[in-house]
């Protein structure tokens, strides 16, 4: 199975890869998201370590059961050969209606077929008032005309 764009990455293909990842995560479909990763992909997400697609699916199901109305924006920080570093911010609320903006960085490493074999994520949560939200598009893919992180001052 191949997941273009393939390494080695350019500025354009790294941005495409980041947008495809953003779109998949905004679907909140764990099975769909897991297909971008190798069967034996290794993750560090905050203090949790995940290995393989089945664990990725389980992790994402737990995540999106807890992080409601999740909306994400990713932006490429840098790239080289088969690696991409992105920064991101997402907004969500808990089951009590408390809103958060979670900021972070991810380091990605891809195999020759364009599947991610390693994902290292560092994330911090900032409580925000509902009035401070910046992401208001309908759940799902961020519209093409919606500002990105830099345009939003994030």
From TrEMBL:
List the InterPro entries hit by this protein, alphabetically: DUF1348, NTF2-like_dom_sf
Give the protein's recorded name. Answer: Nuclear transport factor 2 family protein
Organism, by scientific name, is Mesorhizobium dulcispinae
């Amino acid at each position: 199975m191949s997941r273009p764009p393939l390494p080695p990455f350019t500025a354009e293909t790294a941005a495409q890869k980041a947008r495809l990842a953003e779109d998949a995560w905004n679907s909140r479909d764990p099975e769909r998201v897991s297909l971008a990763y190798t069967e034996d992909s290794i993750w560090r997400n905050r203090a949790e370590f995940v290995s393989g697609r089945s664990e990725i699916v389980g992790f994402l199901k737990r995540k999106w059961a807890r992080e409601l109305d999740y909306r994400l924006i990713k932006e490429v920080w840098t790239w080289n050969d088969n690696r991409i570093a992105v920064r991101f911010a997402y907004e969500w609320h808990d089951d009590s209606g408390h809103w958060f903006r979670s900021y972070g960085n991810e380091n990605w490493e891809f195999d020759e077929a364009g599947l991610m074999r390693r994902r290292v994520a560092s994330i911090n949560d900032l409580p925000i008032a509902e009035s401070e939200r910046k992401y208001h598009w309908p759940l799902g893919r961020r519209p093409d005309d919606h500002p990105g992180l830099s345009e939003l001052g994030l």
